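FW: tagging you since you asked about this chain on Friday. Here's the raw sequence from the shared folder, copied in full. Didn't touch anything.
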Amino acid sequence: MGDRVNRVRGVRDILPEETHLWRFVEWIVHAVMSTYGYQEIRTPVFELTELFERGIGLETDIVNKEMYTFTDKGGKSLTLRPELTAPVIRAYIQNHLDRDTPITRLYYMDSLYRQERPQKGRLRQFSQFGVEAIGSPHAEQDVEVIALAYDLCSLFESQGLSVRLNTIGSPEVRGDYLQRLRKAFEPYAGELGELDQQRVKNNPLRLFDSKNPETQALLDQHAPLISDYISDEDRLHFEEVMAGLEALGIPFEHDAKLVRGLDYYTRTTFEVTSEQLGAQDALCGGGRYDGLVAQLGGPDTPAVGFAAGLERLLLVAEDRLKEKLSPRQLDVYLVVLTDEARIPALSCAQQLRTAGYTVVLETLRRSARSQLREANRSGARAAVILGEEEVKKEICTVKRMDTGEQVEVPLTQLADRFDDIFPKD
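HL: got it, structure written out here
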C-alpha cells in the first residue's frame, strides 16, 4: 500500500452531510437573482494573466501576492481566476452583450482561487456569487444592487445586519486626493511596514486596506478622507444612494475609510456586515466601477456590482439551516436475497426511481440479516425484499421500517402500490 495523498493546505472537502446545505443556499441565490431580473453567466476557470493585472490593478495584494499563475505550452501566462468581475466584463465585451439591451444584469456563482493565508471563512479555493449591472450611471442602480445584496444576506442572517457605505469619487478628482494622502504620510514613512511603504509610493489609497493596526491608527490620526475631496456631482450621487437606502428601510452607516481592495472602483463602495463574524465582519461587498469596461477594451460603459462568499454565509447561517433542513430521507432499501433476484431487483429499483422515490440497491451480496440491518441504519422508510419465492410469484415484500408491517405487492404494480403505502412529500 502506498503513502496516503492528502488534500493541499487551504482547501477543503465538502462532505455528503454538508452538500444539502450548499444546494439549498445555491437554490436561494438562483431564486432571488431571478426575482431581480438578473441572468446567470459562467466564465472559464482561467484567463490571460493580463486581464487581472489590467482589471484589478498591479498594486493590489491579489495581483502582487495571491494569484495562481502559470505558463501554458504556448508560452502564454494564464491565471486561475481570483475574482469574477474582470472575467464577466471580458465576456460582456467579447460577446457584445450590450447589443441586446441598454442595461445588462448578470450574476454568477462559481469557484475562485487565491494563495492567501488560510483562516476561518477564508480558503485558497472558495465559492463566490455576485452580480454585475452594466449600463446605468445613476444612483438607483447602486441602490438596486445594494438592496439585492442585503436581501440575500437577510435570508441567511436576520439579525445584526448592516450596510457600510462610502464614496471614493470619480477618477478625475482622485489624483489630487492621492497627492494629499501621500504627503500626509511622508513624515510617518519610517513607522510603516515594508508593504505599506510601497503602498504610499504606488497607490496610497491601498493604505486603508492595511491589516497593520499601527497603520490604521496613523490613518485615524493623520489621513485626509476622500469623501471630503469629491466633486459636487459625486456628492449628489452619494446622497441619492443614501436616500434610496433610507426609502427601502435598509440600515447603513457612512464609513469614510471604506475604499475596498480593488483599483477599479469609482464612487460608491459598500459592504454588508454581520455582527456574528467579529472583526472580519463583511458578508459581501462591492461598488461602482464606471471605467472598467473601457479599461478592458470595451465601450465607455458604467457598471456596479457586488460579490459574496458562500463559505462566509454558511458560517453565520449553518446552525439555523441545519435546524430547518435535513437530507432527503431514503425511501427504499432494496434487499436482494438470491442470485435469481438480482436482475428483477434492478428493474424494481429503476421503476421506483422513475416514479420519484429514492432507492439504494444492495450490491454486496450480503446475508439477509446484514441487509436488513443496513436498511434500518440507512433510515429508509421501507425495505423491498426480493428472494427466490418472490421471483417465482412475481411479487416483492414491502416492509415498513417504522412498524415492521409487511405486505406483498406484484412487481408490475410496485410503484403504484408504494404511492399508497408511502405518499410522496
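FW: The chain has two domains: 16-170+230-323, 332-418.
HL: agreed, and DSSP finds 15 helices and 16 strands in the chain.
FW: great, closing this out.
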